[in-house]
Amino acid sequence: MAAASVADRARRPLVVMNAAASGITKRSPYVTRTSYTIAQSVVPLAQWAHKTGSRRVYSLVADYAPGLDGEEWFDRTFKAAGGTIVGSVRTPLSTVDYGAYVQRIKDAKPDAVHVFLPNGQPMVSFMKAWHEKGLGKAGIRFLGGEGWADQDVLAQGGEGLAGIYTAGFYAWSRPGRRTPGSAKRSRRPWAAVSNRTSLRLPPTTAWP
């Protein structure tokens, strides 16, 4: 987001490859995005949660711009569908132990919890506390946005991530994903690789 002012001063285009906070492109007329926004994964997740029976949801997000964006879009959408946010908490980015937060969620007895955390170790640490406190066994559904099915998170979390519900725009293991061979045949070479890599390829293929 801070780079938007640099693009303004230089009057040069700034292409954002994978940052997903919704307000990024509003910072400058010189900023454009090639990837998704947080709203595009969180809004369908909130709609699906209500449609499939969740009526009371607890919200836990990391206290930074993407987390607040996820909180805003999920809460707004879930409430519009007729659901209730029974509690919410914003955790510092430095958090390494989520035990107290997870206990608070369990005590609130929601139908589900919406969680938005930075990719990697924070997600794994949260799931450790989730299982230790027995929220899954208590029948509380876990709703996670983009990132929870990323390969690096799955590699760290292993079986501890089984049973969660996520919404995202790409997963390497999704059914029907393109293989390198099928992508080559379709002349769309970026279709066979992960989202982080694919975002760098379409602009280059636009040139002869």
From TrEMBL:
<feature type="domain" description="Leucine-binding protein">
    <location>
        <begin position="2"/>
        <end position="176"/>
    </location>
</feature>
<feature type="region of interest" description="Disordered">
    <location>
        <begin position="177"/>
        <end position="208"/>
    </location>
</feature>
<dbReference type="Pfam" id="PF13458">
    <property type="entry name" value="Peripla_BP_6"/>
</dbReference>
<comment type="similarity">
    <text>Belongs to the leucine-binding protein family.</text>
</comment>
<dbReference type="InterPro" id="IPR028081">
    <property type="entry name" value="Leu-bd"/>
</dbReference>
<dbReference type="InterPro" id="IPR051010">
    <property type="entry name" value="BCAA_transport"/>
</dbReference>
<keyword id="KW-0732">Signal</keyword>
<dbReference type="InterPro" id="IPR028082">
    <property type="entry name" value="Peripla_BP_I"/>
</dbReference>
<protein>
    <recommendedName>
        <fullName>Leucine-binding protein domain-containing protein</fullName>
    </recommendedName>
</protein>
